[in-house]
Amino acid sequence: MRKSVIMSPYLLLTVGVLSVSFSAIFVKWSTAPASIIAMYRMLLTVLMLLPIGAWRYVIHGKLNKSDWIRLMLSGVFLAMHFLFWMESLKLTSVASSTVILTLQPAFTMIGMLLFYRSKTSGARITSLVIAILGSLIIAWGDIDLSGQALLGDVLSMLGAGAYAIHLLFGQQLMKKMSGESYSFIVFFIAGLCLLVFNVFTNVEMYHYSFNNWLVFILLALVSTVLGHMLFNISLKYVDATMISMSVVAEPVIASVLALILLHESIVMVQFVGGIITLLGVALYFFNPKKGIKLRGLR
After folding, report:
1. Nearest to residue 94, comparing CAs of 252, 258, 292, 247?
2. What is the spatial distance between Cα 142 and Cα 271, in angstroms, rounded to a whole number?
3. Average pLDDT over residues 208-215
4. Distance CA 106, CA 186 (A)
């Protein structure tokens, strides 16, 4: 029994990474604004979670004022992550945008060290550096120095930082909540933030093609319910840095999917970078030393 409990987070992370790797493909298939894609992704996910009763925790939960503040901020930064990253995909390639997201574990590790009394092994820091180096090599094969592409890179980096902050807030909250309840509340908050953003920026809300609505549904079901929610559930068993680290494999998978489904080419430099990235991820997970441990806020 104990063995299955230990292995389950790794299975959750594997399914989660595969699911979120389709996100960039779905976004590329849509012609809707990034803020609309992100909003419907969150709100449709909330509707999908209603039948499992995750909303009951809002009524019966024992969260204090500080917990609710963390929940609000976690949802706000998740909304910012989707807004920045999806907009970056409108400006640059799948490989470039997803590669920059691999900075998430670096941001997360820095946050764990700054805001928590935490420790990690030198070997895990080395594996993180190897993985990010591989991802940067992937990007080298897709460099585009146009102003549009550079803006896309900056937005992707902002999205990576926002997601890292979202995970850091979630790490503390998952000690009190189930992954399903946490996901439901945070997704709802993120969806509301994006709704307010779209209303104030006068973005068209409804009149989109069948293809766009299909993309909204796929993003909610595949990339969020089977992706981000599984990451949230995993926070109960592993630290935030490990989850960020697992996502480092996303650009490798996403680049292959882009090659098959979007006909975006992958050059040899990107292939080599992908191998190095996966090596870094493997070294991180199979390192015998423990990862970062939380000891409470300073």
Report:
1. 258
2. 12
3. 96
4. 23
How many other CB atoms are found less than 10 A from the CB of residue 63? Answer: 17
pLDDT at position 44 over 80:
yes
pLDDT tens-digit series, residues 165-187: 888 888 777 777 777 788 888 99
User: Which residues are within 8 A (CB) of 255 and not within 5 positions of it... i.e. 6 or more apart?
Assistant: 94, 95, 98, 138, 264, 266, 270, 274
Question: Which residues, in sequence order, are bridge partners of residue 210?
Answer: none
Distance between CA 78 and CA 22 in Å, rounded?
18
User: Number of helices (H) and strands (E), helices first, in the chain?
Assistant: 15, 0
Per 3-state DSSP, the chain is made up of helix, strand and coil in percentages (nearest 5) of 80, 0, 20
pTM higher than 0.70: yes
* Cβ atoms of 80 and 260 closer than 8 Å: no
